[in-house]
Backbone:
């Protein structure tokens, strides 16, 4: 290669590498701000600020959803299979909201450690399949219920 | 050894190759894209969780995928512009930037429309969506910068530097869903693992991606030809070709 | 076929507006981009042809006329 071109190529590579390092360090420093939500482990560890608008995300714990009969109020627990946080929400839930599904809730953590949400968004995973396949998978999992929780934590 | 490389850079040679490729790219792209989209819309089974709204994936993923690969191609062309000063590389960047802009916009738009029924919101400032919005601004910036500088050579260099600066955004888009907590789910199509999608849905999706790729090829050819015609209008070969009435 | 009827296909179990809005925007924008690119190429081609024809014509008149006008055979080709 022509020495001039070699020099130019070196400059270009240094330019890109330098910017990549700068951006990498910046995003690493800001990672807590880039994270969209706190997970239950972080909240349990006291990393999330109290009474500040934050987001909490995780999986809706199976069997934890309690709907109040005369209002739209719902109480459920959000878990990451390690810790769980009680969430209280009043309003219309997205269609995909269900036990065992991922959610991201926006709201404030109160003094008693309960998360009071004013918005609940559904989070889904990257798996797509027809209903029949999902049904047969569910049957398989029910057959070996002991492994259900471990597979659950892998897909959330 | 570098001879083929420089021949590749000849606008005249490219014009002829493009003329021969374009009918195939257009026909192949339209047919494959139509098959993929119709298959995805009407014949693929619905998703167990999202129902029919997931059918947006058959255009959301191809546009998002292309938007990123077009940027990577532009970055490679930018290196060629800066190191080898090859005109054709600069022609490519200028020709495809508007296509990349449209593809990125479509990816964001279809994503927003998909997000409403599934997540419950049109937009959220998570890392994936935000980095994709930055890609849109990068495309816009490339187009604006090119228009702002009149001198062809300085414009080419400035644009190439901007494209290269922006290329760090591509791994951020790709890995945002793994590095940070996002509302957007991780990738369905993976480079090394099996895709997490049933084959009845996967095949139309892959067809749509391939079809859109070919269609992009056609758009790139025709737009590069236009740019070459404008730049080389005083040369002998353009004169001969135009006067011969060949298109 | 994943749907029982054409109306079911359009409705998509309530998700129709979302799905069709996406496909509509996609077809509209891609078609516009393609037509615009085709037209631009044709315009560039025609501009070149016009430029060359003018050069040829003016070139002829210049050649048959006075030599002094030769310097003005510079044609805008935009």
Residues:
């Amino acid at each position: 290669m022509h020495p001039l071109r070699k020099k130019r190529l070196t400059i270009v590579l240094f330019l890109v590498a330098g910017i990549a390092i700068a951006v990498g360090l910046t995003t690493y420093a800001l990672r807590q701000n880039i994270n969209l939500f706190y997970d239950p482990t972080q909240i349990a560890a006291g990393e999330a600020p109290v009474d500040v608008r934050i987001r909490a995300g995780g999986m809706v714990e199976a069997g934890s959803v309690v709907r109040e009969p005369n209002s739209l109020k719902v109480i459920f627990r959000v878990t990451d299979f390690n810790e769980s946080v009680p969430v209280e929400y009043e309003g219309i839930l997205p269609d995909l909201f269900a036990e065992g599904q991922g959610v991201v809730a926006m709201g404030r953590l109160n003094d008693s450690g309960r998360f009071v949400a004013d918005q609940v968004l559904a989070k889904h995973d990257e798996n797509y399949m027809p209903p029949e396949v999902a049904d047969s998978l569910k049957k398989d999992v029910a057959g070996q219920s002991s492994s259900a929780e471990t597979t659950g934590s892998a897909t959330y | 050894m570098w001879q083929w490389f420089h021949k590749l850079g000849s606008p005249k040679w490219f014009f002829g190759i493009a003329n021969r490729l374009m009918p195939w790219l257009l026909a192949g792209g339209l047919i494959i894209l139509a098959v993929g989209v119709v298959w995805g819309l009407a014949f693929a089974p619905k998703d167990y969780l999202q129902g029919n709204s997931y059918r947006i994936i058959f255009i959301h993923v191809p546009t998002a995928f292309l938007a990123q690969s077009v940027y990577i191609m532009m970055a490679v062309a930018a290196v060629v512009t800066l190191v080898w000063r090859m005109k054709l590389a600069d022609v490519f960047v200028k020709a495809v930037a508007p296509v990349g802009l449209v593809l990125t916009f479509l990816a964001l738009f279809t994503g927003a429309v998909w997000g409403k029924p599934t997540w419950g919101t049109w937009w959220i400032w998570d890392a994936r969506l935000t980095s994709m919005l930055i890609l849109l601004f990068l495309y816009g910036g490339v187009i604006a910068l090119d228009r702002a500088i009149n001198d062809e050579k300085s414009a080419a260099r400035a644009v190439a530097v901007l494209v290269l600066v922006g290329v760090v955004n591509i791994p951020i888009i790709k890995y945002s869903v793994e590095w940070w907590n996002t509302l957007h789910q991780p990738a369905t199509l993976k480079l090394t693992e099996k895709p997490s999608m049933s084959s009845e849905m996967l095949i139309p999706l892959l067809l749509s991606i391939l079809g859109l790729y070919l269609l992009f090829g056609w758009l790139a050819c025709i737009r590069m030809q236009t740019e070459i015609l404008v730049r080389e209008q005083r040369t002998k070969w353009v004169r001969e070709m135009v006067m011969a009435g060949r298109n | 076929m994943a749907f029982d009827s054409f109306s079911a296909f359009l409705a998509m179990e309530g998700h129709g507006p979302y799905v069709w809005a996406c496909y509509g925007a996609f077809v509209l924008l891609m078609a516009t981009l393609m037509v615009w690119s085709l037209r631009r190429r044709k315009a560039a081609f025609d501009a070149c042809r016009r430029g060359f024809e003018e050069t040829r014509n003016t070139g002829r008149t210049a050649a048959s006329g006075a030599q002094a006008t030769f310097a003005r055979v510079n044609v805008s080709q935009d």
